[in-house]
Design a protein that fits this description.
2 copies of one chain form a homodimer. Chain A is an alpha/beta fold. The first copy, chain A, contains 12 helices and 14 strands.
């Protein structure tokens, strides 16, 4: 037999790798201005502090940190997370448990493992984060897109789809959504929690951008309105400390959390203890709040620079105006195809992600996502000028 | 609706958490002598060196380490791993790629994701590592046990089962097997590689104990005999540097590895870069070989102590005599039930893992697994005396 004859599992049928991660590989070209990623700025990565914190936790508790740990979490991490989830995210920690995850990517994976059989339906915002759509597809879920308004999912469409499709899960990024940057209104947050209870659907509230707010008023999480236990909160330190450390967390009702623990036992046994310890110590030392303040100051200027620059490009017909996060989403004149134009843009030295990748059903070829966190204001202006050269001369 | 009404995915039907991990929770009792775990000794965890190495890599390459990385791996880790796999494990790196995994636990999970549809068959050694059996069960595989001889799987039984069951995968721990401590002979290693090619079955060669040899001659890996690309090598730094860091690796033919990369994208995106960097730097600095030498010296004495002590206990009818690894496996007189006796042993202050958990079909209630790496020789003697009190007075 030849190795080419190996029959792969059916979950891979029709699936390719993440389109974004393939685009990333095109960006190796020196000098490329990338609006394509979703990365924190390098200046936002606290390498000096993490070096000190890593040193400290290894000196203080090195033997325990290097040994096997419980799937349920490194005790000092759990001690920090309980008040953090309660005070910062409004999670009722008497009714919920917390589980460290290897990035919130793993949180989504464990939740799919707990709930999804092939053919089960998951409601997603349209557009939404494509990485997690790929995860759902690997679990052979059927994705049911719900249209998005300026203030989050359309509630009539949501309720209608819940009734019609009997989904197992609703996946939402309510705050500074990926890819749109939009934020779900307070009323809709309450409504989503109520619909979850009414119809018995689990809500996955993915909230990695929560703290990256540059203007406007912080809103309570959907989870804070969850009395019945149907809302699962997925958080991450990737955008506020470091994505390379791969530390996220999940807060959920104990019965559901237990299934995630079992799934995690055979996913990676436990999240690396050193990484849990670093995040816990970083928070305990009071480093997180001032760090977030500092990165928000920079990102805020970058967002403003991008929004004002984009106004100069005639090819755009609309653009979202987020109050935080890492992304804006924009549409080109009908007939312009952001996917087809990408190679031209990359040749010119600037990259973005075509919006079509974020729609469960494809289409919307005239849309694109622009990230503003990776480039300094001067570079943003330069990149937009290059983009204008491509778009306005097409 | 009530949260208790949530219908979990069918992969959880009939599955409970890892029996071993539940037993671990019983061991919190102060003074308990545990032969139950599979942990490295605390003295084998190089906390001082890791603190220095962590400091160094964060100072040298902190920004890259804290940023998002490629699923395919942190470049300095890959640079170290290629010669390491080739020279140390005999992997042909012209024909194979390497992927860092979040412990070798994740390697098994990715491989199941790539290959296993519900109902697909996986051949396992009988007995075998129960953590990976749980992983296979979550993928709804049907486990086909093959009987084990002193020198590894019975080859006649293996070929017969391959013909009869058309498995997608053969799972083996050829070196210092968990739970038996047995090592597959050279002839059988060649034979397994040949059968894999002949019948087109993927072999998962799980080799975490490879370097923990205290006596006898090192044997080449099954992977080193793999010309057709059907053997996947799963390795880990858990037993030789630190399990808490969660760094393992997988070497496989590129087509199969690509499926694992896609599955990993939505499992945890990538293995934490700090942890990859620590392992790479630890090896680059030449710390690994002398560290392995030092831990083998201690473990060797511990194994000898356990083997000579166990000879004093009349209740045992046979015991394996491994040349390395972390475990011995033993059988009690027929009629004695190691599972039923465990609470008595725990009350007396000593713990083990009942052997029945390691058999795909259960049974073998008179067997048990004893770990010798966690206890000093004096403690091993004390623990065996306690065990004798329980077993020989039953």
């Amino acid at each position: 037999m030849q190795v080419q004859d190996i029959q792969f599992a059916s979950r891979f049928n029709g699936l390719s790798g993440s389109a974004i991660r393939e685009i990333f590989k095109l960006l190796a070209k020196p000098g490329m201005i990338s609006f394509a990623g979703g990365n924190p700025a390098f200046s936002a990565l606290p390498d000096e502090e993490v070096a000190q914190v890593a040193q400290k936790v290894l000196r203080d508790d090195g033997k325990r940190i290097l040994q096997y740990g419980a799937t349920e979490g490194y005790p000092p991490f759990l001690e920090v997370m309980k008040p953090y989830l309660s005070e910062h995210f409004g999670v009722d920690m008497e009714q919920n448990g917390v589980l460290p995850t290897t990035g919130s990517t793993q949180g989504m994976n464990l939740l799919c493992s707990a709930l999804i059989d092939p053919g089960d339906r998951i409601i997603v915002e349209d557009p939404t984060f494509l990485g997690n759509m790929q995860c759902m597809k690997l679990y052979q879920a059927e994705l049911v897109p719900v249209s998005s308004d300026e203030d989050g999912m359309n509630m009539e469409d949501l309720e209608e789809k819940i009734r019609a499709c009997r989904p197992k899960m609703i996946y939402t990024i309510p705050t500074f959504q990926n890819p749109t940057g939009r934020t779900m209104s307070l009323e809709k947050r309450k409504k989503v929690a109520a619909l979850a209870e009414r119809y018995g659907v689990v809500v996955a509230e993915d909230d990695p951008y929560h703290d990256l707010r540059y203007t406007g008023q912080e809103l309570p999480t959907i989870k804070s309105f969850d009395e019945a236990g149907f809302v699962v909160f997925l958080g991450s330190f990737s955008k506020v400390i470091s994505p390379g450390l791969r530390v996220g967390f999940m807060a959920a009702e104990p019965g559901l959390l237990r299934k995630c623990v079992i799934a995690k036992q055979s996913s990676d046994l436990h999240t690396a203890l050193l990484n849990q310890a670093i995040c816990a110590e970083y928070i305990s030392q009071g480093l997180l709040a001032p760090h977030i303040e500092a990165i928000c100051r920079s990102y805020s200027v970058q967002l403003e620079t991008m929004l004002s620059g984009i106004g100069q490009i005639n090819a755009f017909t609309w653009v979202t105006r987020p109050e935080g996060g890492l992304f804006i989403f924009a549409a080109l004149k009908e007939g312009l195809d952001a996917l087809a134009l990408l190679p031209k843009a990359v040749d010119a030295g600037v990259a973005y992600v075509p919006g079509t990748h974020f729609y469960a059903g494809g289409g919307h070829e005239n849309t694109l996502r622009l990230n503003f966190s990776m480039a300094e204001p001067e570079t943003i202006r330069k990149g937009l000028a290059l983009l204008q050269g491509v778009l306005d001369n097409t």
